[in-house]
Amino acid sequence: MAKPQLPHDLLPLTPPVFHILLALSDRERHGYGIMQDVARQTGGALQLGPGTLYGCLKRMLSAQLVEESDERPDPELDDERRRYYRITPLGDRAVRAEARRLADAVSAAVGKRLLDQKKPGIAGGKA
Amino acid sequence: MSPFQRVYSLMLYAYPRDFRREYGKQMQQVFRDRCRDLAGSSGWRPAARFAAHLTADLVSSSARERASAVWTAVRKPGRRGFVSEWSMTIIMYLFAATTLVQAYVVPTGSMENTIRIGDHMLVDRVGYADPGPMGWHILPYRAIGRGDLVVFHYPEDVRTAYVKRVIGIPGDRIRLENKQVVRNGRRLVESYTQHISSYIEPYRDNFPQPPDFYTTPRGRDMLANHVEGGELVVPPDALFVLGDNRDNSADSRYWGFVPRSYVIGKPLLVYWSYDAPTADLQEWNFRHFVDVAEHFFTRTRWDRTLLVPRSQAAQEIGDGQ
């Protein structure tokens, strides 16, 4: 796979890739931790199955958006060792650029009165 | 390892070898974690949803990983990887092609004009398959109902597949009165049928009657054992089927009921409809090949391409009993 160096070459990110990066943006997580966090972020709307999750991770590893961290047990689950993943600087820039792009799209939608602008939590909605 | 985990570890063989080696162990961990979380929830619904979701995930992501593995192998020809990826991929698609859908061509006109001579169609083999107790909740199974189109093994020669419309399901009382079907005492108005003759032939149009010349031994058996008070009563695990081209159809009137277990599936899609004589469609011949090459654009019925044959309910008139 070609390795794009600029985050802009990667945009737009697919929803699974975006949400996986979002899940990893605050801390490193193992596969199941990513799945749970993505489900939380989207209110359960996006449920990643194991195949989709690891397929995405494989492509994200080769695009250098994420990297493997160490293998260690998760104290909240059991004593089995799990592979942790962590976001790279490139991944961090990509997820920020994508969030910016989405925010711009949302503010355009607000400008067209497609969204209720009084609702809190819409970034960039200044119309 | 629980039985579910063993099943899941077998399912991982759908993925290409390299992918399985790299991520298989982690995927099983994730599966186990999810199962443990589900064990805390009550009822079977979350589990059924998880199973359906997992199956969809497996099908879509394994197809994607396989395609990408083949693509990589094509670009970087390492002999062994190339051959094994291709062969496994082909085996998987063949499996999908023979168990999930199957292609048929319709050579005769007993279902005109719902299904026409020369319709090439895909048949969904999952929809009417016997689901077992759990299957009802997980996969898109559906009971066979009146008005449904079914593809089944012709009981007189199981190598041949027939397509007809279901008129009677177990328990129904059927008779024909001057070409009109009377089911459980109610007259059916069937918008999908075609009548090519106004002549009333007693056996065909005022069924049931004593067997006639065309009634097969199975048909005679049906008439001898399942007629009560001038009506045919459909026994358990059997279907009474008729062709939509009612005056020119060899159907349950002549050769008896279709056993439930003979049902193959339901017509899913007409992917190509080509105007050709019956004989050419039944057996491959060179003349037909030339004919298709010559007249592909003019004899293909373009308006039937990608047509979905649908179940249709008949309107019922009367009180019934």
Describe the model.
The complex is a heterodimer of chains A (127) and B (321). A 3-stranded antiparallel sheet of chain A has the order 1-3-2. Helices cover 50% and strands 13% of the residues of chain A. Chain A has a domain at 7-92: Winged helix-like DNA-binding domain superfamily/Winged helix DNA-binding domain (Arc Repressor Mutant, subunit A). In chain A, β2 (66-73) and β3 (81-87) form a beta hairpin. With 127 residues, chain A is an alpha+beta fold. Chain B has 321 residues and is of the alpha+beta class. Chain B has 2 domains: 3-99; 102-317, Umud Fragment, subunit A (Ribbon). Chain B has a 7-stranded antiparallel sheet with strand order 1-2-12-3-4-10-11. In chain B, α3 crosses α4 (79-99). The model of chain B has no long low-confidence stretch (mean pLDDT 86). Chain A binds chain B through residues 30-32, 35, 47-55, 57-58, 77, 80, 82-83, and chain B through 15, 19, 22-23, 26-27, 29-31, 33-34, 53-54, 56-58, 60-62, 64-65.
Keywords:
heterodimer, A: 127 residues, alpha+beta, Arc Repressor Mutant, subunit A, three-stranded antiparallel sheet, 5 helices, 3 strands, 13% strand, globular, disordered C terminus, B: 321 residues, Umud Fragment, subunit A, 2 domains, seven-stranded antiparallel sheet, six-stranded antiparallel sheet, 13 strands
